[in-house]
Sequence to fold (661 residues):
Amino acid sequence: MSRIALALSGFFDRRTERKRHPFRVIMEKEMADHFTGWRFMILTAIIALTCLGSLYTALANMGQAVKPNDPEGTFFFLKLFTISDGTMPSFVVFISFLGPLLGIGLGFDAINSEHNRGTLSRILSQPIHRDYIINAKFAGALTVISAMLFALGMIVMGAGLVALGIPPTAEEFVRMVFFILLSILYVAFWLNISVLFSVLFRQPATAALSAIAVWLFLTVFYPLIVNLVMKPLEPSAVAAPSQMIAIEQFRLALMRIMPNQLYSEATTTLLMPSVRSLGPLTMEQMIGTIPGPLPLGQSLLLVWPQVTGLAAGTITSFVISYMLFMRREIRPR
Amino acid sequence: MAGNIIELTGLTRKYGQFTAVDNLTLTVSRGEIFGLLGPNGAGKSTTILMMLGLTEPDAGTARVCGIDPSADPVGVKKRVGYLPEEVGFYDDMSGLDNLIYTACLNGLSVIDAEARAEKLLERVGLANEKHKKTGKYSRGMRQRLGLADVLIKDPEVIILDEPTLGIDPAGVRAFLDLIVELSREQKITVLFSSHHLHQVQQVCDRVGLFVGGRLLAVGDIQSLASQLFGKSPYSIEAGFELPDRRTGETTSDGQKRNEIREALLGIEGVIEIREENSIMYLACSQDLTGEIASAITVSGARLTSLSKREYGLDDIYYRYFEGGYNHE
Fold:
């Protein structure tokens, strides 16, 4: 643990005359706490290892992945993030699975541990606005997450560059950046869910378990429930196409309540430019189309609803926790 | 008024049906050490939270340093240091780092913060432990670090909520002395909440007695006593026996007892007599020990004990808690 002390003294030892805004003081402390804490190191190690594993399988299967006449042939580099041979999930799948864990891990004790340590009332009796605490906690954790995801994405890219010997095109690079931004938004959603629980519950363990329960429900049980609901609605083989489309759209609407569904739809579109619709398409709509990649602008347009949905979820849970926190009476322990 | 640094007018705070603070009006003048005395759950902490703007009052206004805490909590918190009942620090940081963090939140640069923190740690006697993690601090050390933490913003007022809870007697003494010293030295107004009478008596210039959300009496200890016991500031306890004329054995002659009682009530200045376990408690307007003694002997009873009591904070305290308010 001595390295933590070292890092912290490094944090304070910037002997400057500069006066920092209290918000920055809190945020920097939060970030220092995350960066030097075991929790963040462990989460980073898990995510980094799994992602490097998926990078390895992707590189090994690169040869088979590119077929002649593939419309995505020009987006060779992006395949690094999406292909897998079935033994190990791809980078995207790993992020969609471990991202929530990262978000929950960094937020579940944000408010309640301060409260339990008795530091909350002491900090709040300093001349700062009350929302500085919750905002700085969120901003600090988000900065840490962004730094980590960007670093990870760049490492994967760099390793791919070295291994493949082909540089990414400008469009591929921009798509990659958008993919990382989307991942940050996705993790921010889970971060906010866990911050909300940390405001609601006094015990960090309860908050963590509740957040994990929500995560499990949304990733494991919710799809099962959707299947159950859809079973009796299943159209017969001779049903009218309009009816089939309606039912399929209803199923998609139900699925899109899950943030990971939104995330995976959006990442697929961004990283596989040949995807041109996320809903059902009739044969009529398909007739005459030339298989080819969508331009970046069109891909972004396609994922816009998904991004909006994720952002709305993030903002809603932040607003709820903000309001709860602002209205709460802060009593010492 | 310029002299009043804290002015509370008609302050009320309700929790559902329960009224925690009920129409509280109180002023504290600059440089004073004011004791807020009351049993647990009397509403002391709630009052303090309202003064800091950490809780909104349901009615009434507070003005601290001339600022309304519910309108401008940051302005108040700039000038007021608050030491919560159970002060918490970041356990994985050293005492010095904790202080520097607080100082930075108060807008100091790291260099200034460190200089001031070092000075204050010296002052509260933690200079040797400043690099130790606060997780390893003892209760008394944490309390002293808390005091340094409160002082680092150079406050005009410090509010201490039960600061001596859980410290050993020697530590309490040192802590209280430190508070008095600092207050006199730097002209800091101190608001000190406690349910320990003796500590309050020891350090406070004025005391406010707080029960069930109401301020029952305010003043220094003498004026409190006279407010409370009004015409009868002296209490004399007299115990006596009634020996039988012939055998010399103690009897319980009710009639004789009443005679003595009448005789004692006849003494000018005796206001009230209460009898309990054959001891009479006499409330007197002046010191009548001698008169009472002779009245009892003249009546033929044998005086067994006689003691005079002056009221301290104890009596004031317990008198208020008669009638339902029990000290936990």
Notes: Chain A touches chain B through 37 residues (CB under 8 Å). The CA atoms of residues 25 and 125 of chain A lie 15 Å apart.
